[in-house]
Specification:
It contains eleven helices and no strands. It is mainly alpha-helical.
Length: 274
């Protein structure tokens, strides 16, 4: 059995720094890797521009609620989609290289955290392009603009990071990236169905939304836009009234849990190796 040697924190930190540098170089030196990352957000921004009701947030009426919901739904789901697409192949495509490096002394936690760091930076930039690009043609008319912009962007970025962490965990479970298609499709469907935006969730489905990143992202953005106050008699969602910090904290917690599970999974895998 492979025995993991105790390493100093300094050595693990060195592994982390080296790996972060390596993955950034891989992105910027491979056009096949860089181009999809660069194009994702602009393409999604174009879709939002084509289908959104651009005056929904300034009208703030019962009739505009559908248009506002669609905009928030698209922004959060697109953030989640970029997160899963960026991460679901990251570990399984490197299985052979990772095996050699782990047996050569690579720290598993440093490896996973380096992946998280690089993908989080990518996701944060992509969400910035998507959100701030949307401001060119949509006025969200936040009751408190400074807080509204900050919470909305943070919700998109943390949704991206939390779903990215789920994608990394899926990648750690699988040996081949081709096997990830069904799990990735399932994660995307869950984000869409249980986001508490398009469908009315009752019973058991109502509980699933509390562990769905997109539901928390939409809840934070809807609270920032005060959607529950537009037409209280016909539209009211309990999650939209929660403090935005609760939603952001839950998203951060989901990301942390799946990063931890990814580390545990990989350590378990390589402890079984001779």
């Amino acid at each position: 059995m492979k025995k993991f040697r105790r390493r100093s924190a300094r050595m693990n930190l060195m592994h982390y720094r080296v790996l972060v540098g390596r993955y950034f170089r891989q992105i910027f030196t491979s056009i096949g890797t860089l181009l999809p990352l660069v194009l994702q957000a602009p393409v999604m921004l174009l879709i939002v521009w084509l289908v959104s009701q651009k005056d929904a947030f300034t009208l703030k009426s019962a009739e505009a609620l559908t248009g506002a919901n669609v905009v928030l739904f698209m922004l959060v789901i697109m953030s989640a989609l970029m997160g899963i697409l960026n991460s679901y192949r990251e570990i399984c495509k490197e299985r052979e290289v990772l095996s050699r490096e782990v047996f050569g002394g690579l720290d598993i936690a440093a490896y996973v955290l380096s992946k998280v760091t690089v993908l989080a930076v990518v996701g944060i930039v992509q969400c910035a392009v998507l959100y701030f690009g949307t401001l060119l043609f949509i006025d969200f008319a936040y009751p408190v603009p400074a807080t509204g912009h900050l919470c909305s962007y943070a919700a998109m970025a943390l949704t991206n990071i939390s779903v990215m962490a789920v994608g990394l965990f899926i990648s750690a479970l699988l040996k081949k990236s081709e096997s990830a298609i069904l799990p990735v499709l399932f994660i995307i469907i869950v984000q869409v169905v249980f986001c508490d935006s398009l469908f009315s969730l009752e019973g058991a489905a109502g509980w699933v939304r509390y562990v769905t990143p997109s539901a928390w992202g939409i809840a934070v953005m809807s609270n920032a836009c005060a959607l529950n106050g537009w037409a209280p008699a016909v539209f009211q969602k309990s999650m939209f009234d929660l403090d935005p910090l609760i939603g952001l904290a839950v998203l951060a917690a989901i990301a942390a849990v799946f990063v931890f599970l990814t580390i545990v999974r990989l350590k378990h895998v390589y402890r079984q190796k001779d």
